[in-house]
Input
Amino acid sequence: MKQLVFFSGTFFYSLFAIAQDDKLLQHGTITGDVGVGIVIYKTKGTDKTSNITENDTAGAFAFPLFVDYSINQWFSAGAGFRYNNFIEGDSASTEGVNAFDFALRPAFHFVNTRRLDFFISAMAGISYFSYKTNDLSDINLKGMGTVFGGGLTTRFFFSGNIGMYLNYTYSAINYSNLKGTASNGVKANYSLSGKGGVFGLGIAFKIK
Output
């Protein structure tokens, strides 16, 4: 009887160990993703000098890079950055509208198999925004702000270390104090906020 209990315990422990080893993410696993996305924001901008507010829609190409450290099979802590190059439309006077986001990304991985990783994440960080025109006004605005969001990501690994990902992230940006000058020396002071979605895809990788 004791031998039966011993061998049964050993058998089930072995099954549990095999199941543990078959997970993509375990304690200490380092993974990440790099890719490209399309951002669509509903924006609200205010000229603090004239107190004029405008609502608009803005699009951008996003280029994110994030790295995640697995605390265990279910939770990870990540960090990274996202470069946003805003689409300028038919405005010939706009030279460049860009934003750099630096954020933390905690995540809960509710599907974790040998090849598949499906997780929900939050994002919080800081963002640097710049706006420059190349017309006679020569306006140059820049400033720091915040970025918050949350998203769903699916990562599928073709091999042990390389795969692809699909992602949707909801983001909210806020720049309360954008300052700059024009060519005539007039100082500008703006605020800008926006909310919208980022649809992305790219390469997923596993370092450790």
